[in-house]
Amino acid sequence: MTLELRDTSIIKDFPKAVIFDTDNTLYPYHYSHQQASLAVQQKAEKILGIKQSRFSDALKISKREIKERLGETASSHSRLLYFQRTIELLGLKTQIMTTLDLEQTYWRTFLTNSQLFPEMHEFLHDLRAHGIQSAVVTDLTAQIQFRKLVYFGLHEAFDYIVTTEEAGADKPNPLPFQLARSKLGLEKGDNLWMIGDHPVKDIQGAKKTLGAITLQKNHKDVKVLKGKEGPDILFDKYSELRELLGEISSNKGK
C-alpha cells in the first residue's frame, strides 16, 4: 500500500507540531504483549502452582472488573492491579511480593521483545530538522510509558509528553489533547498533525478536540473508518511520511 490522502490540499504546509500515540504507533504492541503475558503465566505456574490456562481465565475476569470499576483512567491499565486481583480471584488472597514479581516480569519481557517501527528515529529527526515540535499523548501511567521511551532511546526525541495519568482521563476524552496543545503553546486553528492507530481514541479524538490533520498508522487488525470519521492520511511506513515531508519542503521552495 502507498500513502492514501483524503484531500491533497491539507498538506501544503508543514505542521507547527506533530502529536504521536505510543502503542502500535511507535512500535508494534501485540507481539511484545503476547510474549510478556506468556512469561507471566509461566512464572505464576512455577510460583503459585496454577495452570497457565486457569491463570489466564482469572486474568480476563480481573481486567474486566478493574476496567469497570476505574473507567477510562490511567490506573485502569495497571498490570500491578490486574495481577493483584487475579491472584485474589484464584483464592490465594493478596500476595504483594508475587504481584510485584509478576508485574516486573511482564514489563521486563515486554520491553526486551519490543522494537520501533522502521525509520521511526529518522522521521523524528526530520521533524526536528524542519523546526516542527513533537509530543506524545498516550494512555496508561507515566512511569511505564517513560520507561518505554527510554528503552527505545526516545527520551530526548519529543518536546513534551502527556500521559492520561497526568491529564486525568484516557483518550478520546478532550483533556489529554487539550493539555498537549497547552504545553506546545498552540492556538486553536494552528496546523497540527496527530499520528496514531486507533480510529476513535487517536483519530476522532484529535480531530474533534484539536481540529488536527489525522494520520493513521496502518497494520494488521487496524480498523479504518471511512469518510469524515476516518483519517485524513493512511500510511503503512514512516518512510512514506518522510517522503511526504520532502514533498512539502520541495513545494515550499518553488
From TrEMBL:
Keyword Magnesium: yes
InterPro entries on file: HAD-like_hydrolase, HAD-like_sf, HAD-SF_hydro_IA, HAD_2, HAD_sf
Keywords: Hydrolase, Magnesium
Species whose genome carries this gene: Shewanella woodyi (strain ATCC 51908 / MS32)
Top-level taxon of the source organism: Bacteria
GO function terms (MF aspect): hydrolase activity
Magnesium recorded as keyword: yes
Cofactor: Mg(2+)
Pfam family, one: HAD_2
Gene Ontology biological-process annotations: small molecule metabolic process
Protein name according to UniProt: Haloacid dehalogenase domain protein hydrolase
PANTHER family: N-ACYLNEURAMINATE-9-PHOSPHATASE (PTHR46470)
